Amino acid sequence: MLIPARCITLNSVKYNDSRSIVNCLSRECGRVPLFVNDGNSPAARRRRAIMLPGSAFVCILDIRENRSLQSLRDIMPVRIMHLDNPVVSAITLFACDFLATILRDSQPDPLLFDFVDEFFAHISTSPHSIANAPIAFLFLLQHFMGIAPDSASYAPGFCFDFASGSFIPAPRPNSQWLDASQAASLFSLSRINLRNMHLFPLSRHDRNAILDLLIQYYSTHFGAIRNLRSLPILRALFD
């Protein structure tokens, strides 16, 4: 089936000397693994430039139900992430790495696609600091993954229960939770978005601690999230 689609590249893995497997998020088909020719011809070099992580492009997807790897044709760029800015590059690779890890099915979600597309467009053009962008990304992504904390349940002195995603008076036995102080910080950070993230005064230590907690929270709901190769790069950038 030939499907006109808009896609965002998540990552690319070398398959052999002439082909790569490119994982993309498409608005029409969800996550799609693509078999892409990867030679040294001018067309192949142009295609690699178009399909850098975080880049957006339109194409025709050739979807076959009996294939685990799909193909594409008529690719045209919409946004190319040049990744020459080390801050933008590190944040882009982290967001792509995280999405590639957590999006394990191929269900289309246009609202999720639009959010991811807006995120990459914003960090590449924002006139403000984007140091808090990874935190804003993980907080906002929770809404699309169905695990956003229940802010309405918050009250001063309450702790936060990972499994239920709610604020409760006291921790449950054998559960993962945040104490009252950490829960208050989580509640305060729940207001973060792409437009106001530069207004949150977080230190490097704060950012790393919050990232660890957010990844732990996602792991509670989606299974252990390990081996994010981009995470050490992101930490080192803000050292």
Summary, kept brief:
The protein has 239 residues and is of the alpha+beta class.
Distance between the termini: 48 Å
CA radius of gyration is: 19 Å
Q: Based on CA inertia axes, which overall geometry fits?
A: globular
How would you classify the helix and strand content by structural class?
alpha+beta
> Major sheet: order of its strands?
3-2-1-4-5
Helix content estimate: 25-40%
Which percent band covers the strand fraction?
Answer: 15-25%
Order of helices and strands: EEEHEEHHHEEEHHH
How many extended strands?
Answer: 8
* Uncertain segments: none
Number of H- or I-type helical stretches? 7
How is this structure best described in words?
The structure is a single chain. The strands form 2 sheets. A 5-stranded antiparallel sheet has the order 3-2-1-4-5, sandwiched between helices. A 3-stranded antiparallel sheet has the order 7-6-8. Helix content is 38%, strand content 22%. The chain starts with a strand and ends with a helix. The model has no long low-confidence stretch (mean pLDDT 92). The chain has helices spanning 42-50, 86-102, 110-125, 133-145, 180-189, 204-222, 230-237, and strands at 2-14, 19-26, 30-37, 56-62, 71-79, 159-161, 166-168, 177-178. The protein contains 7 helices and 8 strands, in the order βββαββαααβββααα. It is globular, with a radius of gyration of 19 Å. Helix 2 packs antiparallel against helix 7 and helix 4 packs parallel to helix 6. It is α+β, with helices and mostly antiparallel strands and 239 residues long. The longest helix is centred in the C-terminal third of the chain and has 19 residues, at 204-222.
